[in-house]
Amino acid sequence: MARLRATLTRPRDEARMTIIEHLDELRSRIIKVGVVFVAAAVVAWFFREDIFYFLLAPAEDSLHGRLNFTSVTEAVFADIKLALYTAFVFTIPVFLYQAWAFVAPAVGEMGRLFTYTLIALASSLFIAGVAFGYFVVLPIGVNFLLEWDPERYNALITSDRYMAFVTRFLLAFGIVFELPAATYVGAKLELINAPLLRKYRKHAIVVNALLAAGLTPGQDPFSMILMALPMILMYELSIIIARYVNPVSDLPEPLDEEDYGGGEDGRPPERVGERDL
Fold this sequence. Notes:
Layout: H1 2-8, H2 12-45, H3 48-56, H4 60-63, H5 74-107, H6 112-146, H7 159-176, H8 179-188, H9 194-199, H10 201-215, H11 221-245, H12 257-260
Helix pairs in contact: 2-5, 3-5, 5-6, 5-7, 6-7, 6-8, 8-11, 10-11
């Protein structure tokens, strides 16, 4: 914040140069992320078949290892999207590091330990969310939807629709699991604390239930519970993180004389035993 105030008090030409320098830094960091993304996409292209069967595995019993396509270019573009999606997932740690390195000077010097801890925590939580969605929730939800009343419906699933559904669903789980990392940053900046999170715990449970109902692939209650439970656990983990990162007293602040309520003359009421003194 001191750097920001100093920048605002500089002469106009120097402030303009500072803005240009910030834009140059932003462009440099975007280029670094782009280079890593392109390199990861090229590598993922050579493993597109393995990625295809990996994402198809949760619905293998229902789709028998194959998907349909209805246009000439759909299969090719489906593989391209798979490579780009894989590159996005593997670029997330680099993106988080570059994004935080760009905004860190504006919020103060946090140190290398905080930066590395934040990147490791955010990346691990994202991977954990994707893994939980892939191994636990996705097989139940997808098979529930594909096997709905097979005597009346015949599933004709295209590659474009299936891959878009699966990738967006897994990304949603990865983003949901980022709540503890966001709490870590907010607590470090003293924006939130454990008492505040505990105060809104009931509201958070309702919001988590609504999000679970909207994000689960199947509308059955079991799939919603499988997504709502980890979201609630992430919120409870956030409370623990906030308590240790930004410790504050849970005791209420002492009341002022106005909070006691005054007597007829406007003075606070006498305490018990004062009359006997």
